[in-house]
Each structure stands twice: as structure tokens, then as C-alpha cells.
Amino acid sequence: MKLHTSAKAPNPRRVDMFLAEKGIHDIERHLVDLNAGQHREAAFLARNPLARVPVLELDDGRYLAESRAICTYLEFLYPEPNLMGRDGEERAFIEMADRQVEFNLFAIGANYIRHTHPGLAVLEQPQFPEFGKSQGEKMLSSARWLDGLLATRPFIAGERFTIADITAFCAIEFVRLVRFKPADAGLNQLAAWRDRISERPSAAA
């Protein structure tokens, strides 16, 4: 298999953390330069017409896009350590937590960064600063929700580390580009959780 990916982008980082947690080190990587527009070139569009990374190239020549789908496939191939649930009930609750974080923190935070950070102007044309600002306010509201959740449990989906923690951590780290720090916003539970996750070896993947 070959992973078509990009450095520093949040969705590729989700897959990188997942791979690191699984101890998977034998997948070939092909770096796509987003700033150079390589994701819009014909060669990449043949792999993913939506022009988004990451994309996992399977051994049979098919291409699997979407970070969550890639992780699901890898969970099937490498079931341990388990990150998505050991039975139907646990899988459902982990997926619920992961989806809630993805839609309410990750995606909104990404919009915030893409439309307000000058370094991303080359990728987001046109930028809409007012929209970005409004997304930042919504992201803060979601971060408060997550802070309250973490007051009741040690990890996003419950008592153990799962893919939901990977999604949330990558979201928080991405919005740090605009110097957002949970502790500065009074979100002490979220800050403590973030510091614990940052100590995992996969956080440096």
C-alpha cells in the first residue's frame, strides 16, 4: 500500500497518529505538496477527484480517500490495539463521539483557520475573514462542550484512548496556528487532556 499524504495538514495527521498508535510502519508514503498545487494536478485527481489528502492506494490499484474511511480499513487489517470499538455497542458510541468532534470542532476549526490565517491564502481562494471569525466563535462553543465532557471522563469516548481522541487532538493542534490554547480560554479540562495526549509518542507522528 502507498499513502498519498501531506505534511502538517490536519486530516493527514489523523491518519499518521492512527498509524503510529497501531505500530504500522511499512506503508510507503508519497508526499503531496499542497502549496505547490500538486493535489490539483491530473495525476492526483485520478486518485481523488475531490483533490484532498490523504489517499490510501491499495495493493489492487484502488484508491481509498477520506481519513475516517482509511482508518476504518486499517483497523480491519490491524485490529490491535483496538481504537474503534470491540463490539457493536462500543463501536457505535466511539463513532458517535468521533463524528461529534469531527463535525463540531474539527471541521469548524478548519474553516476558522482556512479563512483567517494568511499562510493558508494560497489554498483557500477566496478567503472570507468574517466567515472565518464566525467559525472561530462556533469552534470556541464546541471547545466548551468538549471541556464539559472531559470533566466526566478521561477520554473523549469514555474510559480509554480511541480514534475520537485522535480527531479531537488534531483539531486542537490545528487551531493552535491562531494561538488558540484551551488553558487561555479557561478550558482547564480540555487543556489537561490535550497535555496528556501530547505526551503519547503518536502525537509526534
TrEMBL record:
Entries under InterPro entries matching the protein: Glutathione-S-Trfase_C-like (IPR010987), Glutathione-S-Trfase_C_sf (IPR036282), Glutathione_S-Trfase (IPR040079), Glutathione_S-Trfase_N (IPR004045), GST_C (IPR004046), Gtt2-like_N (IPR034345), Thioredoxin-like_sf (IPR036249)
Pfam families to which the protein is assigned, alphabetical: GST_C, GST_N_2
Domain GST C-terminal: 87-205
Domain named GST N-terminal: residues: 1-82
Protein name (record): Glutathione S-transferase family protein
Organism: Candidatus Dechloromonas phosphorivorans
